[in-house]
Amino acid sequence: xxxxxxxxxxEGGTIEFPVAKSKKKNTLLYLGVGLFLVILVVxxxxxxxxxxxxSKEGAEKGQGHGTGESTRGVYGHIYTMEPFLVNLADPDQxxxxxxxxxxxxxxxxxxxxxGQRLPQLRDSVLTVLSSKRYQDVFDSEGKKKLKEEIxxxxxxxxxxxxxxxxxxxxxxxx
Length: 174
Known about the structure:
By secondary structure, the chain is of the alpha+beta class. Helices cover 42% and strands 18% of the residues. The termini are far apart.
């Protein structure tokens, strides 16, 4: 073997000194691989357990839950009704209900039938609301049933557009 000189040179070439591996580089490599695996697992979980979140077909086919809830990604025009103030049907107590309702239709644009039928629509909602007792509307299940009943009544009145869902934007019982 050739003898090394003071400055690291060997006769006829250079000497290669062993390079120590950096602990920082290893740590970054492990973190990068770990992050990649976490992203892979999360995406796989979404694909397996919640395909409706990433599938456009589910939203386009209107796969709702049948509860009047809007499907994601497919929105209709929303009509805002004036607030309703009604006495509840509790014979022993003088309770009232104040509700503000927004209606989402299946149409993407406003329909003139809504304006023409507004008195009938309001009357129908008032009739449904005033037939309820406090026990019927105080919890979330009661509100859900109330929504379904109102949607059904409204869809009986309209011809061209359909009520997809309703939203309670204000709901006070006193």
